[in-house]
Amino acid sequence: MMDLLKQIQIVLVETSHSGNIGSTARAMKTMGLSHLRLVSPKQEIDEQAIALSAGAKDLLEQAQVFNSFDQAIADCQLVIGTSARLRHLQSSLIEPRACGELAIQRAIQGKVAIVFGRERVGLTNEELLKCHYHLNVPTNAEYGSLNLAMAVQLVSYEVRMAWLNFSKNLQKSPQNSPLVEKANINYPSAESLEHFFNHTERLYRELGFIRNDAVMLKLRRLYQRCELETAELNLLRGMLTSVEKKIHQD
Amino acid sequence: MMDLLKQIQIVLVETSHSGNIGSTARAMKTMGLSHLRLVSPKQEIDEQAIALSAGAKDLLEQAQVFNSFDQAIADCQLVIGTSARLRHLQSSLIEPRACGELAIQRAIQGKVAIVFGRERVGLTNEELLKCHYHLNVPTNAEYGSLNLAMAVQLVSYEVRMAWLNFSKNLQKSPQNSPLVEKANINYPSAESLEHFFNHTERLYRELGFIRNDAVMLKLRRLYQRCELETAELNLLRGMLTSVEKKIHQD
């Protein structure tokens, strides 16, 4: 069986303190995760990062650095965003346990990004909109100040627990696992989804239907929540193209 | 309903770095835990500890400091010990999720200690023997270097999850909860249990039955694993006393 844990990409966006990057690497490695992605970190991987990574220096050396959020998630089929400011995103909120299960379930199919925002301000609304799910750690209502690397530790732990459970269940009944059945479904990459949204917006602006941002916000929420499959996406894009052909032929 | 989270005592034994005490306080508070106990910390609560505690300085101010492990757990009815070197303690091992559920279940009755050992060497064998259960975080077999405060974060998170589930279930069916039924059972404090073990050893050494440590080790494991109830403890102590009376009257 392929190593599902290798499919999980931990993405840190514009991290301010290199020490947090080091502690994140250590936290990941204790739980068997190995793929770290950094979007425009404010400090490079320095002495402080290496010191706090303890024996997880290899993760720092292999970390991929990206210039944009979009690039960092482009090849991932599921994107889970986490931020302290998520209370308004009711419909797509999940807790760490569900996040771990979902990540492992979808890792059978492709890469999964779990994205952690900036230390103080989290992810931007634009970034949150590009996530299928939004992770909410049910912290103390009076004190929710979870350190970045601590949050990574919790989520990595739940991913590992889900992976251990999955491996155990697979040994018991390899044929009947609902996860194996779900493995036959093909999901599009974040990049493909983005092309679809851009295609939609372009067409419907041209049509005069879209005049402000509200429509696309609603469409994004809809399609991300329903976890669009590749076949469905192809269908939807085919529909867009058919409309385009029609309006451009006249 | 009383606040079960207040029953949970996080105990750090001979912590080397004050920063870890600060990070532990922060980790606890994010999950709604408030009671921190320190056994002979190697460094006092200093600037570093306060800095890393972020907004959890109140936990540091209220932390209780003890000179011995025994004193720190004396008033607790359930003691869960955690250490990196636990592989040999097969029968009493639990994972963080079960630890959280057990802690909340027993918090209905009395105080629960969750004990974390020294950064490098964990808990001593003697200390481990005084724990009812032993917590094992299922880390990466090739890299299990979990930071102390990270371990506290994981365990505190599982305690909180169990507490949230318990509160939810209680609202659904307050009368039928198995946990509420279990609340009618009375469990002895660690101190009472220790008196019992000492009483037993004293008597059986006097009787010439105990000549080395092996017997008491086995008895401790037995009674701790079965979670002796107060009524049972009283019965056993009554039995010891009856033997004593008999042998001393001649």
Classify the secondary structure makeup of chain A into a structural class.
Answer: alpha/beta
| Biggest interface between chains | A-B, 29 and 29 residues
As residue ranges, the low-confidence spans of chain A are none
What helical percentage do the residues of chain A reach? 40-55%
Largest sheet of chain A: 7 strands, parallel
Termini separation of chain A comes to: 54 Å
At the third CATH level, what is the topology name of the largest domain in chain A?
Answer: Alpha/beta knot
CATH architecture of the largest domain in chain A: 3-Layer(aba) Sandwich
CATH C-level class of the largest domain in chain A: Alpha Beta
Give a short summary of the structure.
Chain A has about 250 residues and is α/β, with parallel strands linked by helices.
